[in-house]
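dude i think i finally got it to work??
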Amino acid sequence: MRINIDDMTVYIGDKLIDLTNNEFYLLTLFVNNRNRLFSHNEIIDTIWPGEMPVSRRTIDINIARLRKKLGSYAEQLVDRPGFGYGYVE
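look at this
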């Protein structure tokens, strides 16, 4: 997987993965902080700071969509109930 921050693109092999802005921000948050888990509140404060209230369900939906798009890399995007979400190697 290749992530280009400047043009907000993600490639798996030669295939461009079509991510929404929020999916891209989530992925880069997790990949840049590998092996760290983020609570829902930490994710909200980082991805949606100062915006209208964001529900936990919004996070769950964005992460579910991201997992579908990541193919085999989705296995590294983990959810540990009671701890949070993260990207583990």
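The longest strand covers residues 9-12.
im so relieved honestly
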